[in-house]
Amino acid sequence: MNWFNVRRLFVRELLSQLRDRRTLFTTVLLPVMIYPVLGLVMMQVAQFVTESKSKVVLVGASSFEGLPQFVEPSEEEDKLVTLQETLLDLVPEEFPEHATLEGVQESLQQRLDSKEFDAALVLSPELHKYLQFLKESVDGKGSFDIQPETIPGPVIVYNSVADKSKIARARIADVLDKWEEEVRDALFELGKLPLGVATPVEVQVQDIAPEESQAAQFWASMIPIMLLLWTLTGAFYPAVDLCAGEKERGTLETLLCGPAKRVEIVTGKLLTVMVFSFATSLANLVSIAFTGVFMVAKVMPVGSELHSKLGMFPGWNILWSLVVLIPLVAMFSALALAAATFARSSKEGQYYMMPLLMLALPLSMISVMPNVELDLGTSLIPVAGSALLLRNLVESQFDVAIRFAIPVMASSAFCCYLAVRWATFQFNSEAVLFRESEKWDIRLWGRQLIRNKPLLPTGGMAIFVAIAILMLRYVANATASAPETWQDFVLSNSIALILTIGVPAILVAVLLTRNRMGSLKLTKPPVVALLIGVLLPFLLHPTIIWLGVGIEQLYPINPAMKAATAPVEAMLNSAPLFALLFVIAIVPGIFEELAFRGVILTGLQKDSRPSSAIFVSAFFFGITHGILQQSLNAFIIGLLLGYIAVRCGSLIPTIIMHVLHNGITVLVARSESQEWLSPLLTDYHGTPMYSPLVAVCGGVIAIGLIAWFHIQTRPKLAAGTSQHAGD
Amino acid sequence: MIVVENLRKSYPDLELDEVKAVDGVSFRCEPGQIFGLLGPNGAGKTTVLRTLATLLKPTSGSATIAGFDVEAEAEQVRRHIGFVSNNTSNYDRMSAREMVEFFGRLHGMPEDELQSRAALVYEQLQMTEFLEVAGGKMSTGMKQKVSIARAIIHNPPVLIFDEATVGLDVLVGRSLQNTVLELRDQGKCILYSTHHMREVERVCDQVAIMHNGKILCEGTQEDLREQFNQKDLEDVFFDLMEQQLQPGECE
Fold it and tell me: What's the rounded Cα separation, in Å, for the pair B251 and B247?
């Protein structure tokens, strides 16, 4: 790569974007303006909210002789005011004679529905009597023995769906709380009891979090999401203009027939998109900080309701977030560039913004979920890790942030690498660069699919099988009922697995390809591969079990899920060994291999490099396993199985490996086999586990064996064919 | 020099299974010569030229430009050609000078050489009056001059013009043809595709008539007129279209 050319391309693209008013508006001006404008709107709204009064009907406001009152006559006729709350407009009404409390409530409910008032407060004659009774009892004139079972009110009637009604309810409750305290104090005084008796125990709470972090919680959740969204937006608009826009204007062809290499063009464009994405985030962040520091204080002064709800704005601290943004900017820029390259026109480019947002938004929302904290596990999740790291920085929890900064950055950098690879691939594909608007006809397409079958499956068929499997698994899991006996479990699981994983793959190979056995990689393997297939499961089993333990440490299994699977596990312990081996080892070992290392891997191999094909097939193999912890484990095993299948071009060794691995897992879990395995085992938190030494030794020998296998073989599509020579 | 041998390019197609955009095309073009590719729309001219400009990869066959293979040595090929087509536009937000010099720098020209070469090109193409005008504000004639200047700034031995006069008025079209003739006189090897007979008659030394991805016949203008016993090239062309001759029968 010629870096001088990259610099020239970068400077050109940058100048071009700086001369485009639309891009400047969306990436710089809009993010700067939006917060002050929002701030001003909030100020207006805040005034509006504080000025409006709640209209409340007060039924039965008869005097409570001798006890403190919470209302007094207003200057306005027929109205009352409360002593503490000035925003309540109280309209007094008599408690109808001979009416029950329920009857009154019902009629109020109807009037509330017709919006006659915001809420109602009912003080029934029973309440009056009850308070009188208490007064007389503490005064020594009555007896506590005849205390009623329930305390009769006061009752607030309101509608929780209507905001105004909710506000009215909160205001009445505040007034009543204070009134209740006063009534209690008065009763204590009457009974000559010290006031301290009312609250004999008072809990004191000491929060050790620094003041700035305890105050910033709301902001710490909101700011990362806003930043991530703007980073993506800031990347997307220039990317669309630089790729789809150039295609549309005809300048891309000018550039492509020039001397610069494709990778130089991609890098130049990527750097430009990154600059804009970063500038958008920076502008956005400075604007948030400025608005926060200067305006939030005015809109919600310390002690105000909003301040107590949202907490103090974290201040200029949030500028720290910029450091985290760099890898994220790179990742979003590469993704946006790849999506924009695929588009034929700017208009089509805009369509791809939504799927990217749909991908990024749920991941960034993880940072606002309760109980989710930044740890090694969450830091490795793309986007979510960055959002959590940003949250910690905004909360000024620098110690946590520094500890997990490296995994977050590494995960983002890896995703960025994948996105750059994708973007470069798009730039090298003439089908993408010179894509005309094709006329697609399902009838013609179907006819061609049947008539012109390829020798081996295509990349499109591979992705189709993978997605079909995911959808079918989803439907099967959603409709499955819990098995009642082990026979039930064995039968339903085997059938579901064959139907959802095996059948789609076999159908595609049989109906849509000419070389059916080759498509499923059902070919004769070299002896060396068979040897590997038999030995590796034994050598690697301890390592893989420890890998599972490691993954569970990173992402602990939800206790509720553990509890839910416990009865099934108990039931399986009573099942005969042959049945377990059948359902857990043999069926998945054969049918998962036919799908993932058979049709899917073979199809992917045809349209991409072996490493990419292995990675993508392992990814699908992983997510088919449903539970995150199993998925990660399956993904890693999928990489190894994919590698073996690609090197020997046959599925037989990987079927052997898969069946043996799952079979060994079943056997080792049976208590009777643990006796003769005991020399290899050690105690790990109360359960028998392979000793770490066994795992390390097995792992080392396995690596040696794989290295020897690597020397002996070359990548193949199917046995007898070498990569890219399939059709 | 351009050497094309049995070049084929096909695409998958839903209706026809496979479209043969270029079907076994062979020709040679020498330095100091203008080779005209004449054919109706959809004949496959643009696909041949895009393959020569390394924008597309041939399905089979081979092509070399200045001795470099278009598939294996694509980068070297691009350094030795200038490509002007109605699909290669100029940047709207760059002035004529910025555009031309940007491509000169991409070709790795040293700054002093670039400046002296640029001055020469601007004068040759009479561009000095609109050097600072942005692409978006240029007239069609100005844009075409900038395209040519961009293609010849690095003084390549081979030039490819693909329907370069489409959309130009008579005056600008004429001026472009004059430029092409001047470039030929400088010893450039020029491949010129068009569907205008008059243009071919005026500028091309050697002509190949393409239809449905094949070259139907090839030769100098006199050769073709004699062979078909016609007065001008247009009649030759219509004769050919009517007969749908095979290349073999043409010789």
Answer: 7
pLDDT tens readout for residues A591-607: 999 999 999 999 999 87
Contact A309, A218 (CB under 8 A): yes
Residue A363 scores a pLDDT above 80: yes
Nearest CA in chain A to B11: A431
Q: Using an 8 Å CB-CB cutoff, list chain A residues near B108.
A: 2, 4, 259
Kindly report, residue by residue over A230-252, the tens digit of the pLDDT: 888 889 989 999 998 988 888 98
Strands B34-38 and A88-93: unpaired
Q: Which residue of A has its CA nearest to B98?
A: A12
> Which of the residues B77, B78, B91 would you substitute to probe the A interface, choosing the one with the greatest number of A C-beta atoms within 10 Å?
B91
- B83 interface with A at CB cutoff 8 Å: yes
CB nearest to A253's CB, from B87, B92, B105: B87
**Closest to B25 (Cα-Cα) out of B55, B40, B47:** B47
Residue spans of alpha helices (H) in chain B: 45-52, 74-79, 96-106, 111-124, 140-152, 170-185, 197-203, 221-228, 233-243, 247-250
**Residue B110 forms contact with A (CB below 8 Å):** no
Task: List CB contacts (< 8 A) between A9 and chain B.
Answer: 106
Using the Cβ of B87 and the Cβ atoms of chain A, whether some distance falls under 8 Å is answered with yes
For B52, which residue in chain A has the nearest alpha carbon? A257
Cα-trace Rg, chain B: 18
Which residue ranges make up each domain of chain A? 3-45+213-433, 53-197, 453-712
Query: Which residue bears the tokens 């090897």?
Result: B189
Fold of B2-80+157-250: Rossmann fold (3.40.50)
Please answer yes or no on whether B103 and A430 come within 8 Å at the CB atom.
no
The β-bridge relationship of strands B214-220 and A54-59 is unpaired
The beta-carbon neighbor of B93 closest among A19, A261, A448 is A19
Residues of A with Cβ-Cβ distance to B93 under 8 angstroms = 15-16, 19-20
The domain ranges of chain B are 2-80+157-250, 89-155
Alpha-carbon distance values, B215 to A486, B4, B166, B205 (Å): 73, 12, 22, 17
Mean pLDDT across B72-92: 90
Average pLDDT over chain A reads: 83
The alpha carbon torsion through B213, B215, B220, B224 (nearest 10 deg) reads -110
pLDDT tens-place string over residues A154-168: 889 998 888 888 888
Own/partner long-range contacts of A484-489 (Cβ < 8 Å, ≥24 apart): A485/A571, A486/A571, A486/A572, A486/A574, A486/A575, A486/A579, A487/A579, A489/A568, A489/A571, A489/A572, A489/A575, A489/A583
Is residue A154 reached through a cis peptide bond, with omega within 30 degrees of 0 on the bond before it?
Answer: yes
SS (H, E, C) B80-132: CEEEEECCCCCCCCCEHHHHHHHHHHHCCCCHHHHHHHHHHHHHHCCCHHHCC
**Would an 8 Å CB–CB cutoff place B188 in contact with chain A?**
no
- Per-residue pLDDT tens for B177-208? 888 999 999 999 999 998 888 888 889 999 99
Report which DSSP code applies to B203.
H
Q: What is the DSSP string of A386-435?
A: HHHHHHHHHTT-HHHHHHHHHHHHHHHHHHHHHHHHHHHHHHH-HHHHT-
Of all residues in chain B, the one with the smallest CA distance to A453 is B17
